[in-house]
Design a protein that fits this description.
Length: about 450
């Protein structure tokens, strides 16, 4: 995410780092580098101009020029100004005081509107809501079927009337159905086009007039750079959107859209799509995104992901097993599931402070290894999982064949398990814990 922009900003900051004190000419030269980095990242020219003016004005003040660590002060100012141009603070989805909350999804074809209608519905289902998806795209081949498949995967019903009924009528009947059946959120998937045209906008305006949506969310493909801002501006002028979902931010995105949309349209980015999976959607936090761009990490989002994957009851059971030294391969497997539940490991590493985007581009994290380990453990009998000491050569060979792996991989997993069990045994012993800080431990992950 924003790898190219992050690297260019890092290079710009180097102009400040080796100087004990900064002059106004030093700052001017550094600002020129930052300006070029933003323009090359396809950020809107006016946004760049305003941003550089704001940063420069603060950077030539006493807080920087008289600071013992001026480079850090400039990074702090850039971080704060980046946060400001992206909206300052999180803008949450408005929930209607009188259900249902109606969310109208709009955007051009190919931006991921249908998928993200499902992703959003799934996100709110996890929060205890009872959502309904409404299929109003009658033009794109298989659009209705696509929404139904997404809904089925998420366990969310889809209201559809086929492709012979007008989208306005479908939206109206879908809302009636939601009221009758007690759905408290309605996500309306509308049609898109390859470009904005009068017929499309008139249809969307008619749906808006008929259902009075609580939110109109524009889905924008972040990969199209500056064009994303132009699309957002036009949709906003014609529909008065309430927010934006930026999709495909997991790709090699320049970053221009995220840094420009809020400033140009005045409408907030509310969510970001960060992958193909149906749970790959996040609320947009301007401050956290600025930190990610500057390589400062995003610890809060990392903690939230951990909390979502965390099962308190299972954690208490695990704690008891650690105390009683009864940690088994089944428990080991459960830990793999918790890790997988947190999402893409490359993205998680990118949230760690000091790990800049692109820093791990040559060090691939082997998520397939988790799947192989899972297959190995599931190929064991219950007795073998509880007492791995009984695993002799013939049993290991059988397990390797059953899991599609090798005996070497089985042995490697068992070694990891033993290391983990030994580490946990130390955690369960107060005397060992007292010496823990003095001893370097190798964690087997």
């Amino acid at each position: 995410m924003f790898q190219s922009l992050s690297e260019k900003l890092e290079n710009a900051f180097r102009k400040f780092k080796n100087k004990g004190k900064l002059t106004e000419s030093d700052i001017k030269a550094g600002m020129r580098e930052i300006k070029l980095a933003l323009l090359e990242a396809d950020v809107n020219f006016k946004v760049v101009k305003d941003f550089i003016n704001s940063v420069s004005e603060r950077a030539v003040g006493t807080e920087v020029l008289e600071s013992l660590l001026p480079a850090q002060q400039i990074v702090k100012i850039v971080n704060e100004e980046l946060t400001n141009i992206m909206g300052g603070s999180q803008s949450k989805l408005v929930i209607s005081s009188k259900p249902p909350t109606v969310v109208m999804m709009v955007g051009l074809q190919g931006a991921g509107k249908t998928t993200h209608a499902g992703k959003l519905a799934g996100l709110y289902k996890k929060q205890g809501k009872n959502p309904l998806l409404v299929a109003c795209d009658i033009y794109r081949p298989a659009a209705i079927k696509q929404l139904q498949i997404v809904g089925e995967k998420l366990g969310i019903p889809v209201f559809a009337m086929g492709d012979k009924v007008s989208p306005v009528k479908i939206a109206e009947e879908g809302l009636k159905f939601a009221n009758q059946k007690g759905y408290d959120m309605v996500f309306i998937d509308t049609a898109g086009r390859l470009h904005i045209d009068e017929e499309l906008m008139q249809e969307l305006q008619d749906i808006k007039a008929k259902v009075s949506p609580t939110e109109i969310l524009l889905t924008v493909d972040a990969m199209i750079g500056q064009d994303a801002v132009n699309v957002a501006k036009t949709f906003n002028e014609l529909l008065d959107i309430t927010g934006v979902i930026l999709t495909k931010l997991d790709g090699d995105t320049l970053g221009g859209a995220a840094l420009s949309v809020r400033q140009v349209t005045g409408k907030p980015i509310k969510f970001i799509g960060i992958g193909e999976k149906l749970d790959a959607i996040e609320p947009f936090h301007p401050d956290r995104m600025a930190s990610r761009i500057l390589g400062m990490g995003d610890v809060l989002s990392l903690i939230e992901k951990a909390e979502q994957a965390f099962d308190e009851k299972k954690a208490m059971e695990l704690e008891k097993k650690i105390r009683e030294s009864t940690f088994t391969l089944d428990d080991f497997l459960e830990q793999f599931s918790q890790i997988k539940g947190m999402g893409n490991l490359d993205q998680l590493m990118g949230m760690m402070p000091g790990v800049k985007p692109g820093a791990l581009k040559d060090a691939k994290i082997d998520e397939k290894a988790l799947a192989r380990n899972e297959a190995i453990i599931k190929s064991m009998t219950r007795k073998e999982r509880e007492k791995p000491d009984i695993l002799n050569a013939s049993r290991k060979k059988r397990i390797a064949q059953g899991s599609g792996t090798t005996v070497e991989e089985v042995n490697k997993l068992l070694k990891q398990f033993e290391q983990t069990r030994a580490l946990m045994k130390q955690f369960s012993n107060p005397k060992q814990m007292a010496r823990f800080g003095k001893k370097k431990m190798k964690i087997p992950f």
